[in-house]
Specification:
This protein is of the alpha+beta class. It contains 2 helices and 5 strands; from the N terminus they run βββββαα.
Length: 123
């Protein structure tokens, strides 16, 4: 999947979080056109500062990221979440519905490549 989302006069940048600097917040630095005013017949061009806006486009607008839908998104927040010590990772799928979906071979073509089943479990 090579197509990338492109936004003219802007670039994707990452800003470190204030509380957790290891978490990078995706932003878009947008170039503004200069303001034009007139003083009599004289045209005055005044540059405007770049503006930062929150970028919700995910990795699809990052030119440095290779997209492979079968691999899913990188687990960027996992280490940070686990370090908080306020979550529990379950050893396996615990809901009946989840187990039914896991065991449905007709869904194999939709599965992410990197999610391995637990030992002794088959699809």
């Amino acid at each position: 999947m090579e197509q990338k989302i492109k936004f003219p006069r802007s670039e994707k940048v990452y800003i470190p979080g204030k509380l957790f600097p290891e978490i990078r917040v995706a932003m878009r630095r947008v170039e503004q056109v200069p303001s034009t005013t007139f003083d009599g017949d004289e045209k005055i061009i005044t540059p405007n500062p770049k503006v930062y806006v929150y970028d919700t486009s995910g990795p699809f607008s990052d030119t440095n990221v290779s997209i492979d839908l079968k691999k899913g998104l990188p687990r960027l927040r996992e280490a940070w979440i686990l370090k908080r010590n306020d979550v529990e990772q379950l050893p396996e799928i615990t809901s009946e519905y989840g187990r039914m979906r896991r065991n449905d071979k007709g869904l194999d073509h939709l599965r992410f490549e990197h999610i391995a089943l637990l030992p002794g479990k088959e699809r």
